[in-house]
């Protein structure tokens, strides 16, 4: 089967419609992941042992099981206990929850990378806990986290096609429906690949800029 | 309701397919990781470009897109693959691309003087890799390889969408037949988690094996 440019232009509006949803899911999912990741990271540092351990097991469990199955659980199981979510919301929560566990690791790594001496110095100069975090720890912990978080953002973007399995009309799903109705698979599937490749290559280039700006050298 | 033992059997059959996919996919990924990772360090430039293109392409598009492309587009080019072959191919090539960067990074982190010492004692390129560089680089690769293998295991769930009857697919079958949602999905979540714990434990064991005898080499 040969490549048909006319067909590509014909399906372009549908694909762009799907791309819009893909990007929307990525942004919303990233917000959920960033916030929930912080919650996980804080709970893991909690001085209440069972709480810290429970969170740790939960994080490990989420990281050790497939996102697709987690999406199924949110989309199919929750309605049975009375929580009925629209597909898009279920998708955002699923992908956000999954990547929150990765974000939590990044937060933890960033905070632990701040040398002990800094904590002790803050204590020695009689800073309050709030001051210690706001003026000593976070300014050193956050910059190295940025490139790592950005990497997971791209990884998350690339996992959004999974949402087509729970009927979210994102890029992959639009391409599939176009392909199914026209019996032409080559153009839609290839275009989806091209969209993903172009967007991730651009993002990777942006990340190397971020890395040059923030990576490693927290002490500017 | 009713015949739960039958449904459990169905899910266990799926677990076998998932395990099969994971093992074969990991094998292909390992081969690809070393081939592409070492090719990225080759002295012959076109080989480096080829490896670079492979890595960027497979890391840039998602496993899902690659799987669908292999399964739906390749037949038009005359290559028809069974769902299992398509799954192993897509998973292996995808994870192999991530692995290639790990191999490259680990080889580069072996200190320069090790390379120089090899040249000084007149080892061939192959001898240098086989006996000096890789034995030191391998322990650095293993932890990341372990994570990659777990990512691959999680990736296998996607093949259920091209009608391969893995664990996720079978759970959907059970859901369709019984109308029960919690039990099949909870079962496979636990099974997936057990498998990923198993991979993690296996990797830690392997790490201990390959670092044996290296004490004192690295600080």
UniProtKB/TrEMBL annotation, chain A:
GO terms for biological process: amino acid transport. It is found in: Cell inner membrane; Cell membrane. One of its GO terms (molecular function) is transmembrane transporter activity. Keywords: Amino-acid transport, Cell membrane, Membrane, Transmembrane, Transmembrane helix, Transport. It is a multi-pass membrane protein. The chain crosses the membrane at residues 20-43, 81-100, 189-210. GO terms for cellular component: ATP-binding cassette (ABC) transporter complex. Pfam families: BPD_transp_1. Its main location: membrane. Residues 19-207 form the ABC transmembrane type-1 domain. InterPro entries: AA_ABC_transptr_permease_3TM (IPR010065), ArtM/GltK/GlnP/TcyL/YhdX-like (IPR043429), Ectoine_EhuD (IPR014341), MetI-like (IPR000515), MetI-like_sf (IPR035906). Belongs to the binding-protein-dependent transport system permease family. HisMQ subfamily. This is Ectoine/hydroxyectoine ABC transporter permease subunit EhuD. The lineage of its organism: Bacteria, Pseudomonadati, Pseudomonadota, Alphaproteobacteria, Rhodobacterales. The gene is ehuD.
TrEMBL record, chain B:
It is a multi-pass membrane protein. CDD domains: TM_PBP2. It comes from Frigidibacter albus. The keyword Lyase does not apply. Residues 15-199 form the ABC transmembrane type-1 domain. This is Ectoine/hydroxyectoine ABC transporter permease subunit EhuC. NCBIfam families: ectoine_ehuC (TIGR03004), HEQRo_perm_3TM (TIGR01726). It comes from the Bacteria. One of its GO terms (molecular function) is transmembrane transporter activity. Pfam families: BPD_transp_1. GO terms for biological process: amino acid transport. Gene3D superfamilies: MetI-like. GO terms for cellular component: ATP-binding cassette (ABC) transporter complex. Its main location: membrane.
């Amino acid at each position: 089967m040969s490549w048909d440019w006319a067909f590509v232009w014909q399906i372009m509006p549908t694909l762009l419609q799907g791309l819009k949803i893909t990007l929307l899911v990525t942004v919303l999912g990233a917000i959920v992941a960033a916030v929930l990741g912080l919650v996980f990271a804080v709970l893991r540092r909690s001085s209440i042992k069972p709480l810290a351990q429970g969170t740790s097991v939960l994080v490990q469990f989420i990281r050790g099981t497939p996102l697709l199955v987690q999406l199924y659980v949110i989309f199919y199981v929750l309605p049975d206990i009375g929580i009925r979510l629209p597909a898009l919301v279920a998708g955002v929560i699923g992908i956000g929850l999954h990547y929150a566990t990765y974000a939590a690791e990044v937060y933890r790594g960033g905070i632990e990378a701040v040398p002990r001496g800094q904590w002790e110095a803050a204590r020695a100069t009689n800073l309050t806990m709030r001051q210690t975090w706001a003026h000593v720890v976070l300014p050193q912990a956050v910059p190295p986290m940025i490139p790592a978080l950005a990497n997971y953002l791209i990884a998350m973007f690339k996992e959004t096609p999974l949402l087509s399995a729970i009927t979210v009309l994102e890029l992959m799903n639009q391409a599939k429906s176009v392909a199914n109705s026209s019996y032409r698979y080559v153009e839609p599937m290839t275009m989806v690949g091209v969209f993903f490749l172009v967007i991730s290559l651009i993002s990777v280039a942006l990340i190397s800029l971020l890395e040059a700006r923030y990576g490693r050298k927290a002490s500017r | 309701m009713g015949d739960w033992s039958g449904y459990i059997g169905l899910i266990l059959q799926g677990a076998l397919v998932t395990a099969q996919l994971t093992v074969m996919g990991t094998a292909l990924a390992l081969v690809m990781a070393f081939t592409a990772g070492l090719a990225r360090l080759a002295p012959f430039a076109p080989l480096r470009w080829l490896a670079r293109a492979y890595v960027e392409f497979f890391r840039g598009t998602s496993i899902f897109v690659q799987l669908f492309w292999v399964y739906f587009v390749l037949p038009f080019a005359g290559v028809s693959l069974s769902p299992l072959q398509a799954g192993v191919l897509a998973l292996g090539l995808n994870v192999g691309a991530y692995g290639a960067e790990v191999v490259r990074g680990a080889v580069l982190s072996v200190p320069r003087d090790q390379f120089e010492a090899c040249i000084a004692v007149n080892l061939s390129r192959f001898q240098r890799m086989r006996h000096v560089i890789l034995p030191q680089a391998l322990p650095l690769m293993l932890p990341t390889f372990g994570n990659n293998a777990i990512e691959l295991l999680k990736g296998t769930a996607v093949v259920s969408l091209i009608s391969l009857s893995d664990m996720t697919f079978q759970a959907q079958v059970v859901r369709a037949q019984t109308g029960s949602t919690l039990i099949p999905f909870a079962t496979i979540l636990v099974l997936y988690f057990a498998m990923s714990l198993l991979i993690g434990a296996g990797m830690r064991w392997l790490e201990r094996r390959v670092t044996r005898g290296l004490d004192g080499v690295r600080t």
